[in-house]
Design goal:
binds zinc ion; disordered C terminus; 510 residues; disordered N terminus; eight-stranded mixed beta sheet; Urease, subunit C, domain 1; TIM Barrel; 2 domains
Length: 510
């Protein structure tokens, strides 16, 4: 009897501490030590961020690690609101992408499909994509009832019905945030005016993508000053196929673009495969004509060639001289405001939904491609490290799926190089400051940075596995890239083109 009693007491004692710990672990996730930047609340400081039940529940200078079930050390990284991509393609359009594969590894927690569906196809979009995505997917529905399905449908004025479009929006306020008109190939203003009419009926903005494929006799000046309303959005602002943002003779931003901005028309990047040109963007930003919103226009083509996800486009704007805070506000707060979802989205306020991106600002030599595609080299690059959507970790860098049994992660991979006068092309993998592997078919997706060295010679000829990674890439005797201690220190030709921790989909390489 006595013994039993003692055992009971011992058992109680051993339970007690674990109850105490369980009680203390009040948070699901704790991001510790990061630089929290939340433009909406004027925060730019080292803070810890606690998340529970899908919400941000505490932001403090120091939250003890013991209070959370999962603690992530994010020191040295930016902790920012989940990015809001105002212009991307995840339905209808032939180059559409899967939102969770595209958005989440980029820190994009909200993606707005720009015109893939119309009032006839919105239900299908909702059923097949929106309802199944971990990414928050919202829609600008096309003024064309059938959506963005190519010609002749996109120029079929008879299928542009403002009343049905507005009705569909009003029945789906939770998911539809505006209207898109694009690719209208006929003369006249029917598509734009009908989109604006639908926007007026439903009190939502219209995004216009005009004259990418055809001029059709319209001028952007007339569009911006006479047809669009304040709050409507002109996307592809740095596209020069319209030959209009920058005056060809003076190099100045057209005065009526500035006038349009003054009257409240909004300007969106919409990078895509055809709408971001270095000469145009450079001149515009130098004159202060920066975007209201930074967006990707991501589809299969722009993903594969320009790799223009949100961190990529943000990095490009930083290369043009904008600072991180300026770029961030245009990738979070501004798009959320434009679609009427602020402050529900775009901030890290306590009590808000826990949509969070953790970004790293990397230093090195990086090549960024525009839509021609011309490369420009930069020394800074943003990369997503961690994404939290609705309080759950939905992406973590480094979790590169194993393929073909080769699971090594390389810091740098030179593809298709010839070493010295050896005849065959090989891939050279570098980790830290050493060459760790020389072989064929090393996976680009397993390297953090990839450089294409096809047709070039790598010296010294003694390069081998295990030796220090001090290499020079030569183009018929001329040094075009140097690597010292495993790091790229010069890259005159922009050989560095792939960032492969975002794995296969973002790589140009097989
Ligand atoms: Zn687009």
């Amino acid at each position: 009897m006595r013994i039993t009693k003692r055992l009971t007491i011992v058992a109680l004692c051993s339970i007690a501490p674990s109850i105490a710990i369980g009680y203390a672990q009040q948070y699901d996730i704790l991001l510790r030590g990061g630089r929290v930047i939340d433009p909406a609340n004027g925060i730019d400081a080292r803070r810890d961020v606690a998340v529970s039940d899908g919400r941000i529940v505490s932001i403090q200078a120091d939250i003890p690690a013991a209070q959370a079930r999962k603690v992530v050390d994010v020191s040295g990284l930016y902790v920012v609101p989940g990015l809001v991509d105002l212009h991307a393609h995840v339905f209808g359009y032939e180059g559409s992408l899967v939102p969770d594969e595209t958005a989440l590894p980029a820190g994009t927690t909200t993606i707005v499909d720009a015109g893939g569906s119309g009032w006839r196809t919105f239900d299908e979009f909702h059923r097949t994509v929106m309802a199944h995505s971990r990414t928050r997917v919202l829609a600008l529905i096309n003024i064309v009832g059938k959506g963005m399905v190519g010609e002749p449908y996109e120029s079929d004025v008879a299928d542009m019905d403002p009343a049905r479009t507005a009705e569909t929006i009003l029945h789906n306020r939770d998911a539809i945030v505006g209207i898109k008109t694009a690719h209208f190939a006929k003369p006249g203003w029917d598509a734009i005016d009908r989109a604006v009419e639908a926007g007026r009926r439903a009190s939502v903005p219209v995004m216009v993508d005009d004259k990418i494929f055809t001029n059709a006799g319209r001028t952007t000046k007339e569009e911006l000053l006479e047809h669009l309303r304040p709050g409507d959005i002109h996307t592809h602002m740095y596209n020069d196929r319209q030959i209009e943002l920058i005056d060809r003779f003076t190099g100045k931003v057209q005065p009526w673009m500035i006038e349009a901005r003054r009257r409240g028309v909004l300007f969106d990047v919409g990078h895509g495969g055809g709408s971001f040109l270095w000469p145009v963007a450079t001149r515009a930003v130098a004159q202060g004509f920066v975007p209201d919103t930074i967006s990707t226009d991501l589809h299969q083509g722009s993903r594969d060639i320009q790799q223009s996800n949100m961190p990529n486009v943000m990095s490009k704007m930083m290369l043009l001289g904008m600072n991180f805070a300026d770029v961030l506000v245009r990738s979070t707060v501004n798009p959320a405001k434009e679609i009427g979802r602020y402050p529900e989205l775009g901030t890290l306020g306590v009590g808000r939904v826990a949509d969070i991106a953790v970004l790293e600002e990397q230093s090195g030599v990086f090549a960024f491609k525009d839509s021609w595609p011309a490369k420009r080299l930069g020394t800074k690059r943003l990369e997503c490290v961690l994404t939290i959507r609705n309080g759950k970790i939905v992406y973590e860098r480094g979790a590169v799926p194993a393929r073909g049994g080769d699971t090594a992660i390389y810091d740098l991979l030179l593809k298709h190089a010839r070493i010295g006068d050896r005849g065959d092309e090989v891939d050279i993998a570098i980790s830290g400051n050493r060459i760790v592997r020389i072989g064929r078919g090393l996976k680009a997706a397993h390297a953090r940075v990839v450089a294409e060295a096809e047709g070039y010679t790598v010296m010294p000829a003694t390069a081998a596995e295990g030796v220090a990674a001090d290499l020079t890439v030569l183009d018929t005797g001329r040094a075009i890239m140097t690597i010292r201690n495993g790091k790229i220190v010069t890259d005159d030709e922009g050989l560095t083109i792939s960032d492969a921790t975002r794995a296969g989909p973002y790589s140009n390489f097989k």
